[in-house]
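Technical annex B. To support the medicinal chemistry partners, we prepared a structural model of the target in complex with adenosine-5'-diphosphate, based solely on the information shown next.
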Amino acid sequence: MSILSTEQLTKQYGAEPNIVKALDSVSISIEPGEFVAIIGTSGSGKSTLLNMLGGLDRPTSGTVKVDNYELGKLRDEDLTVFRRQRIGFIFQNYNLVPILNVYENIVMPIQLDGKKPDTQFIKEIAALLGLEKKLHNMPNTLSGGQQQRVAIARALASKPAIILADEPTGNLDSKTSDEVIELLKVTSQKFHQTIVMITHNPEIAARADRTIHIEDGRIAQ
Ligand code: ADP
Ligand code: ADP
């Protein structure tokens, strides 16, 4: 059974006569534990698709299912809780909080959720990502690759079943990109996570188990 799926997913922006169809009847199905890359050129609809999969935005029509929940049926408040509990997000620009140190950044979503971080688990993740000596550092003292590893640690910290990554290597050189993708693969296998990653880079996409091509808002064969 799929962990993440869409049916006839359509998203339009704007109003007549200036409608942009960012997604047009997209149906995809992702199995638990899969590492899927979504590849397409700029403006093809990748971010829109990822935002819909993560419940960050609502479709114009069609459905998104996570586990067996149809996201469109959840109220905004419930959707927020659902997202926090099941989905970890990773972004191109890392989105770290500059005034918090590495440890504080990693545990921030858990604290926002009103929970106490599992310190042992946080240390385990930090060690896996080579961050054990950086926990007291501020983000601006880290390289781009290190900052992205902090963002990965933050995404993993709440033990989500699904990781959604939007151009996670977009700001990294190719060697660092390779390392970051390898770490994503290792941690997702260790924690039985499903990863959906957006990229416009075919070499990065080739590291995934499966690639979905998107072109002008449609799945390309
Ligand atoms: P990608 O991530 O592949 O670059 P996007 O999903 O960001 O593509 O965009 C798909 C299309 O939707 C583009 O034509 C883009 O200009 C348009 N678009 C995206 N977000 C908005 C928005 N908030 N308002 C209007 N148009 C948008
Ligand atoms: P708990 O109360 O859950 O035992 P602590 O606050 O004692 O957690 O922290 C346990 C460990 O986590 C500390 O020894 C330290 O290594 C790390 N840690 C906690 N807070 C920070 C922080 N703000 N910056 C860096 N590391 C921290």
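Notes passed to the chemistry partners:
Strands lie at 4-13, 20-30, 35-39, 61-66, 69-70, 87-91, 162-166, 194-199, 210-215, 218-220.
The chain has a mean pLDDT of 94.
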